[in-house]
Write a structure and sequence with these properties.
This protein is 37% helix and 11% strand.
Length: 228
């Protein structure tokens, strides 16, 4: 079996991508990055997902919180209850500078030493909050970089960056994952969970995934506590 490194944050998208990579026949190794995120509960979610899908799981620590500059890594308020138009009018304060570049670079290094030529990432350019590192142009540019900046790349092997969700709506992502047996109750996407790790239901991430579930006639399983 061909090996693949899958970036697994613990969220809905990355859980779906992990299921897709396994369905495509790859021997998957999940890589989770602890970068100083305020929503650290997602690290526990990543472990749950990896265990449920029975894949190897590696955690690495790169404290982007040392730089700050984001509501996810600094003492800044997470935007709440924004409208869809407000979400897309500008790059929000929840953008973590260079996060996907750093994470893909770590996945690339891990792939080289693991004998993997395929990397999967759950970026999405449709239902997203305007992050520049979730666009097709970014993935294409990083794949080019991967093939000129590594020993395996210059030795003739092709490194491929897979972003299977990049053109899908959040509802389509959920449908795909459900078809592959993903339990979204194990995931965590909230940017500002409470002290017990429960999703707030009001940040951009919570609202986007909740709306997608509702469009499919379903409730988001991680927001059950808000419906009591």
């Amino acid at each position: 079996m061909k090996k693949a490194i899958v970036l697994l944050s613990g969220g809905l998208d990355s859980a779906t991508v992990l299921a897709i990579a396994r369905h495509q026949g790859f021997e998957t190794i999940a890589l989770t990055v602890e970068y100083g995120q305020r929503h650290r509960v997602e690290l526990d979610a990543a472990r749950r997902i990896a265990d449920a899908l029975q894949v190897k799981h590696k955690l690495v620590r790169v404290p982007l919180s040392d730089f700050g500059g984001s509501a996810l890594t600094d003492n800044l308020d997470v935007p709440k209850n924004r409208t869809e138009s407000e979400m897309v009018e500008d790059i929000p304060i929840t953008y973590v500078p260079a996060r996907n570049t750093v994470m893909l670079s770590l996945a690339l290094a891990f792939a080289e030493v693991s004998g993997a030529f395929d990397i999967f990432v759950g970026v999405n350019a449709v239902d997203y909050s305007g992050y520049p590192d979730c666009r097709p142009e970014f993935i294409e540019a990083f794949e080019h970089l991967a093939n000129v900046a590594t020993k395996v790349g210059v030795s003739g092997e092709k490194i491929t960056i897979h972003a299977p969700l990049i053109s899908m709506t959040k509802a389509q992502i959920i449908e795909t994952g459900l078809g592959l047996g993903v339990d979204y109750g194990l995931t965590h996407s909230c940017y500002d969970p409470d002290s017990t790790g429960r999703a707030c239901g009001a940040c951009d991430s919570c609202q986007i995934r909740s709306a997608a579930f509702h469009s499919l006639g379903m409730d988001d399983p991680v927001l059950a506590h808000l419906r009591l």
